[in-house]
């Protein structure tokens, strides 16, 4: 169902409200304010009419209520679910999520820890606990838990990205690079990962790292010629290599030529933008800066 902005969900029929929530559940749509409206103004008038969907709707409404900071409604839904499913792990997770929403992170972490002990293979419990560790500012604990999590869920790209960002937060660039290298192994055509790894190599600096960074930027531009981030990165790497005192004379010459080629491609891209948007001030400024860089490179 396509979003209907400004639509009054308080006046839909019971059947439409029930069908809409079911569709949103099945497609993963999380329209929290609308879910709360449909529940309070339509479905809550006759919950028993939901039949076998009742408990799924309670769970859906609970999560939506937490998103909307409606803790009263969330508590009501949890109470109903707990009465029907005592000692349920799904209900325990909702209780922990309520603690999270209310910023009682220690209580939430205790529940998630117990849930993980009961079901070590459930990735959602582990992810929620890691989110709690981050909210508490316990970055080392989050790094430890993420490393443990990735031993089981090796192909979770989001987890590798998160771990990489945490290592960068701790100024541990080599370990952050390892995380991105794992991502490139599983997704070798993803230019975002290539650019991230190149950025880190460029940041460390030195001839070897600059050459590696240039190769990653080069792969990214080959995969996506319109990727300006990669084009700029390739230009900067080549420029630095051409001026690096430890680079061989032949390498310096090649780097200067590579920098010039990258500069030409970037310039051409901005000229394309200006041809379709002649009054674009950002494109004009960037083009002027590129012309200046071209003059300096020619000297």
Automatic annotation (TrEMBL):
Broad class of where this protein is predominantly found: endoplasmic reticulum
Compartment(s): Endoplasmic reticulum membrane
Keyword entries, A-Z: Endoplasmic reticulum, Membrane, Repeat, TPR repeat
Keyword Cytoplasm: no
Family note: Belongs to the EMC2 family.
Quaternary organization: Component of the ER membrane protein complex (EMC).
Protein name according to UniProt: ER membrane protein complex subunit 2
Source organism per UniProt: Diploscapter pachys
High-level lineage: Eukaryota, Metazoa, Ecdysozoa, Nematoda, Chromadorea
């Amino acid at each position: 169902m396509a979003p209907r902005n400004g639509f009054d969900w308080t006046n839909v029929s019971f059947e439409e409200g029930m069908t809409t929530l079911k569709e949103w559940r099945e497609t993963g749509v999380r329209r929290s304010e609308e879910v709360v409206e449909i529940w309070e103004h339509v479905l809550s008038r006759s919950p028993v009419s939901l039949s076998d969907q009742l408990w799924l709707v309670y769970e859906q409404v609970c999560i939506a209520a937490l998103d909307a900071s409606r803790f009263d409604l969330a508590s009501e839904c949890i109470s109903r679910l707990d009465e029907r499913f005592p000692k349920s792990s799904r209900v325990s997770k909702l209780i922990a999520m309520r603690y999270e929403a209310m910023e009682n992170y220690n209580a939430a972490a205790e529940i998630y820890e117990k849930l993980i002990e009961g079901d070590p293979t459930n990735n959602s419990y582990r992810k929620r606990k890691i989110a709690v560790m981050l909210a508490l500012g316990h970055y080392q604990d989050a790094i430890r838990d993420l490393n443990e999590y990735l031993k089981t869920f090796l192909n979770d790209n989001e987890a590798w990205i998160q771990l990489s960002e945490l290592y960068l937060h701790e100024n541990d660039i080599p370990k952050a690079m390892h995380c991105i290298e794992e991502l490139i192994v599983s997704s070798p055509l993803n230019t975002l990962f290539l650019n991230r790894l190149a950025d880190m190599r460029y940041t460390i600096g030195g001839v070897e790292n600059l050459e590696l960074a240039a190769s990653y930027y080069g792969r990214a531009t080959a995969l996506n010629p319109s990727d300006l981030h990669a084009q700029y990165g390739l230009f900067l790497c080549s420029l630095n290599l051409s001026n690096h005192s430890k680079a061989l004379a032949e390498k310096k010459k090649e780097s200067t030529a590579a920098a010039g080629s990258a500069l030409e491609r970037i310039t051409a891209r901005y000229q394309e933008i200006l041809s379709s948007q002649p009054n674009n001030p950002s494109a004009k400024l960037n083009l002027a800066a590129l012309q200046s860089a071209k003059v300096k490179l020619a000297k």
